[in-house]
Design goal:
The protein has one domain. It has a seven-stranded mixed β-sheet, sandwiched between helices. The chain has a two-stranded antiparallel sheet with strand order 6-7. It is about 50% helix and about 10% strand. The chain is built from twelve helices and nine strands.
Length: about 325
């Protein structure tokens, strides 16, 4: 039996190599630059925000070779034999633009999301919104809380706001930033959705209580982690957190893959809500955790293949760890 009591979403066993801390001056400069840009975007037409994102994304692609190399390499492996080098580099560049657009347009939409006409505004910006809202709400209500997961694609920052509008209470797990001033700014921005935002570290206890109270969880489980299991993702083994699967089995709750992707015109959104991935009868709990995790990865991959230019390819998703120890071994 996999025991989750007191478990962490990060390994407490081995001392982690500390990140190099940024100096206070650099943190303050970053904060002022980002804050100024976000305030500017709130009063700027969306078309201009797209132009700014395009400029920043192109500069990032050209001036940050390490991230460009990771994105191109990830895409070459994911689309081996499907796309040529020119297509790969175009997608990598557009992915960088999408990354900046996610945060800048989020600042623009935040004011509208707080207004009394929020549902009408969202309907204008999305396709088949009511139907998707009702599907997500129905799954949440029927299961008395479920586990919503999304890849880093499109505008994942809007999803807590959308779930708040439809009446789905969420506890959202996020990874803290290495700039304490930006962390406070982004936390305030995310908390504006009305949902509960918690840091990834030591999150398991809160997640357990959330499901016990009939509320749902929001997670972005598509990043590499030292404390994970190796499952297929785009034809390669990727170290993936098993936490959604562990919680799904322990509390008999479904996992639902969701996403908020930009439509082809770039100015409206397509919401995606998958059918539930539910735990079934099993002889081996460990095998069931692998099955659920792989099934979730497959559903995320389908979304990414539809909108590859909106996915965060610059993250080292297939990173390998010299001293990796699987979470299941530690919890067994």
């Amino acid at each position: 039996m996999v025991e989750v009591k007191g478990a962490d979403t990060q390994s407490p066993k081995k001392p982690k190599k500390k990140r190099s801390k940024k100096g206070k001056t650099l943190q303050v400069v970053e904060y002022i630059a980002v804050y100024t840009l976000l305030v500017f975007c709130r009063i700027t037409p969306l078309k201009i925000i797209h132009l700014i994102s395009s400029l920043l994304g192109n500069l990032f692609y050209l001036l940050v070779p390490r991230r460009r190399k990771i994105a191109v390499d990830n895409l070459k492996h994911a689309y081996a034999g499907e796309k040529d080098d020119k297509e790969i580099r175009k997608i990598a560049r557009m992915s960088c633009i999408s990354f900046f657009l996610t945060f800048l347009e989020g600042s623009k939409f935040q004011a509208a999301l707080k207004s009394g006409s929020v549902q009408d505004d969202l309907r204008k910006a999305s396709l088949a919104l009511d139907e998707l809202f009702q599907k997500a709400k129905r799954i949440h209500d029927d299961s008395k809380g479920c586990i919503f997961v999304t890849p880093h694609i499109g505008n994942w920052e809007l999803l807590p706001h959308v779930s708040s509008v439809v009446g789905i209470p969420l506890v959202v797990v996020v990874r803290p930033l290495d700039n304490i001033y930006l962390e406070k700014l982004i936390y305030k921005k995310r908390a504006g959705s009305g949902q509960v935002i918690i840091p990834k570290k030591n999150a398991m206890f809160t997640l357990q209580k959330t499901l016990q109270h009939g509320e749902s969880i929001g997670m972005l489980p598509d990043q590499s982690t030292m404390r994970g299991i190796s499952v297929d993702f785009f034809g390669r083994k990727a170290t993936t957190t098993p936490v959604p699967a562990i919680l799904s089995i322990a509390y008999k709750r479904p996992i639902v893959v969701v996403a908020c992707c930009r439509s082809r015109d770039g100015y409206s959104f397509e919401g995606i809500v998958s059918d539930p991935v539910s735990p079934g009868e099993y002889r081996s709990e460990k095998e069931e955790i692998f099955r659920l995790t792989e099934e979730v990865n497959k559903k995320m991959e389908l979304i990414i293949r539809k909108y590859p230019e909106q996915y965060l390819w610059m993250h080292n998703r297939w990173k390998t760890y010299k001293h990796k120890k699987e979470l299941l071994q530690e919890l067994h």
